[in-house]
Amino acid sequence: MRGFLFFAALMTLIPGIVQGAEPEGTVEKLDSAVVSTSRAGKSTPVTYTMVSREELHETNPMNSLPMALALQPSVVTVNEGGTGLGYSKMTIRGSKGSQINVTLNGITLNDAESQEVFWVNIPALSGMLSSVQLQRGLGTSAAGPGAFGASINMSTASVGADPYASVDLGYGSYGTFTASASVGTGLTRSGLYFDFAYSRGLTDGYIRNAYADVQSAFAVLGWMNDRNSLRLTWLFGDQHTGITWHGIDLAQYEADRRYNPAGEYYDQYGNVRYYDNDTDNYTQHHLQLNYTRQCTDRLIWTTTFNWTKGDGYYENYKAGKRLSKYNFVFEEDSKGDFIVQEAMDNHYFVLNSDLKYSSDRLALTAGINLSRYDGDHIGKVLWSDILGDDYDYASHKWYLNNGLKQEANAFVRAEWNPLDWMTAYADLQYRGVWLDMSGPEDDQVPLDYSTQWQFLNPRAGLSFHWDPRQKAYVSAALGHREPGRSDIKENIKNAWIADQAGVANEGVSLKPEKMLDIELGYTFASEKISASANIYLMEYRDMLLETGRLSNVGYAIKENVARSWRRGVELAASWQALAWLRADANLTLSVNRIKDYTDYVQHVDTYDNWSETGKTTAMNYGTTTMLMSPSLTGMARLSFKPWCHASNSLKTIELSMDGKYVGKQYMDNTMTDSRSIPAYFVSNLGISYSLPLRRSLDFDRDDSIRIALYVNNVFNNMYYADGWCWKNLVEEDGAVADGIGVYPQAPINCMLKVSWNF
Question: Mean pLDDT across the stretch 91-112?
């Protein structure tokens, strides 16, 4: 660790050592260098797609970023509340959020403990981005948890030449309202620039208690000249949403698909009541300071310091719980109703620094990343009907535990052109991870645990570009990834339960997962046609795979499987058939398997007492399909500009219609039809029109108002897109009992958006 700190200190001195002469002519745009190290270039043998600022801005304002990326190859998205606002999730090639590495300006956004990105914490992010690169597979080296299916590299680093301002308003189904505004100075003569954006979103949600009140803000203050760039970026996210992670069983789905059991309890007369503050609340501040220096024509150095502050809580009404559940010690362990909060308070510090050298035939990049995450998990009891209103709940400690995770990351990457039509690529990354956990969890199980991991991740490949329109590539990469906090916590808990019951166990037995990713691809791009084909082989050892079960706060519980793989082919094409007609489509066919899968079913006492006994029964299913991994996904989109040749504003009218197909998915790894999600198809319609206004006073462009109408699920398909399940062996009669929860998606709904750019 000391060596990395010394290396970091040395990197900060490099600009003073390597000054060089001032270049003549145009130099590389310094703002783009901020994120270049985590992104693939046009010759890098990595499978990726780019999503531009314009594409992001034109999406439905109800959509979170995952929903805005829903039409990209191999992407499947779902929203817990049934619409676009609130908790959204995505999988890429079947890999869930904790296996997708997400960076903003080169800094990882994945929570260090859970390895997830909670998109609801940063609402309306797509409106603040200059571009997104979505890499599928292991991709290039990146800081933070390893990409075990994909990585999403986002950038806000874009400096416009002119001042601007814009206002967006949206209103739609289920009481949804969105508003955002942005303003910027552009690059002034002195090199200063300032950008600010704010957004607010409100919705009642489709299912009960799926309401959301979310807001975000973004500000950049920067300075730039030919050699230097200094920018301070602040990103703020605040969310208050109803709890939606429970899902509903199929019987309830048929009776009332908008039902949600969150906060449900019975009053003293046996009437059903709902606690109106069964909520999830979280606030996050990201502060980034970046300095970039063009040392010479060929050498660029950039360093970013990041501080992320997060705090929030779940609040729940818990009915029929014992006092001992919440660490109250009384002679009589009575049952009653409680209002509780499970809170988080964390700090995340990052230093990211790299050097990039480029010549006519060689591009060489080296960098380091040091991070420290310090997070408290706090349990509070706010009220109990047993103890009454006068009890001093503030003095009671339910639980308090801490997680400290530190990482040192170093990489070197080279792209070399030995021939004009060939690029050789090599990338070597070292990751060292140190984890310390301490204190009791919510059920008083001690989480005292300490470990470390050391990983070496090599990547190599070749790309061939024999003419400007065509490229082929082949690459191989080896990746490692450590277990997340929730994975370790559940193993500690299971080991503790077994130990208390006198059952032999291995303690915490989770292993880091390993993956070999082989990619072969071809792309073609002409003026009117573009197409790509990619074959991927993602071979896993000790993969951490979801079991289908959820923890008590909605996290997917995982286990190691010794041997598994994801193999598939991805096809994509676009065709500008006519000046007024464009077609886009993609298709993924895949095989996602676990070899010789053994499921370990937990024992419970009786049907009336679901307490775990610490015993498990092994059930072998042979080779099975991984959960939530459809073997077929695809989309098609048609865009029309029927009056594109008109000489008036009619030429701006655009209509689009898209459809997304997602094949059958299983909720666990046993391929049981009763625990599966049927294939579904959903289609959306959009129409937009821009009305030019008077010419701006000081800007060399026209004012305009853009009106867009989005109709989602236009064919009113009643479907659910995600689910979970549980199963236990009941010792009373030896039978296996199970249950599922599904997440209904909204039927046909619409959103109207008005944008004013000036």
Answer: 89
